[in-house]
């Protein structure tokens, strides 16, 4: 039986996250304190005491989910024995850190730069994302291709759930077409911009230099990266795929299917929330899924 660990992305945050880990585990306290120092603001205080609105700020959300996910992996100690890993968008950085490819401080620095660069790109290009439910991926791809303006498939979350990304007018037009084509729902999402689309090019260019300058080692097991949906262990390839990730779609459905083809039978979500467990079950009901708990 092969065990795959998966790490969540933006949207998994919740007020009070990580407080119990900080209170009960010395190693967690040290990593939270390190995160506060690296970021130059009290991330831990916002995580433990902040409101939902405060946690939603991109510069907070991404480091918060990353920090909690990595701490959970570290607290597993010798029980963290992955045969393979993957992360959803931001979660890819957590996966790479947990498997030794990136140090905690280097990964957190990149995550913070990524968040800031994405925020800046959003401000330059007003844009959005929408979830299309109940249509085949190919139908949604064709709808996007027929719309004037920038709108692309951004997150292949599970069969029948594809998130699109682009300019506000193009996304709204695609939602209308998707509804006409029989979509169960076409819902514009409350996000700051068009993540995983060509509109993130300014952020990609900004982050590329930082990633190139960062040491990445060979991870202890294959990492199934979002942009290619296949196992990668070569540090040069990892860097390229991390840079591409900002403007490329998150191929989550394809990544999970590839992991299953390579023998994964048990998926463990390591991080806040249960989003990925739900998606993995929708990809194949036969998958065994669980979360990480320290109670």
Which helices and strands, and how do they pair?
Blueprint: E1 2-7, H1 19-24, H2 26-39, H3 43-49, H4 52-56, H5 58-75, E2 84-87, H6 91-98, H7 104-124, E3 127-133, H8 137-146, E4 151-158, E5 161-167, H9 168-180, E6 185-188, H10 201-212, E7 223-224, E8 231-232, H11 235-244, H12 252-261, E9 264-269, H13 275-283, E10 288-291
Parallel strand pairs: 1-2, 1-9, 2-7, 9-10
Antiparallel strand pairs: 3-5, 3-6, 4-5, 7-8
Mean pLDDT: 95
Radius of gyration, in Å, reads 18 Å
Low-confidence stretches: none
Q: Helices and strands, in N-to-C order?
A: EHHHHHEHHEHEEHEHEEHHEHE
Q: What is the level 1 CATH name of the largest domain?
A: Alpha Beta
Number of strands: 10
Tally of alpha and pi helices: 13
Major sheet: order of its strands? Answer: 8-7-2-1-9-10
The name of the CATH topology of the largest domain is Malonyl-Coenzyme A Acyl Carrier Protein, domain 2
Which features characterize this protein?
17% strand; alpha/beta; 13 helices; 10 strands; six-stranded mixed beta sheet; Malonyl-Coenzyme A Acyl Carrier Protein, domain 2; globular; four-stranded antiparallel beta sheet; Alpha-Beta Plaits; single chain; 2 domains; 295 residues
How would you describe what is shown here?
It is a single chain. The protein has 295 residues and is an alpha/beta fold. Helix 2 (26-39) packs across helix 7 (104-124) and helix 6 packs antiparallel against helix 7. It has a six-stranded mixed sheet with strand order 8-7-2-1-9-10, with helices on both faces. Helix content is 48%, strand content 17%. The chain is built from 13 helices and ten strands. The protein has helices at residues 19-24, 26-39, 43-49, 52-56, 58-75, 91-98, 104-124, 137-146, 168-180, 201-212, 235-244, 252-261, 275-283; strands at residues 2-7, 84-87, 127-133, 151-158, 161-167, 185-188, 223-224, 231-232, 264-269, 288-291. It folds into two domains: 2-123 and 198-291, Malonyl-Coenzyme A Acyl Carrier Protein, domain 2; 126-188, Malonyl-CoA ACP transacylase, ACP-binding (Alpha-Beta Plaits, 2-Layer Sandwich).
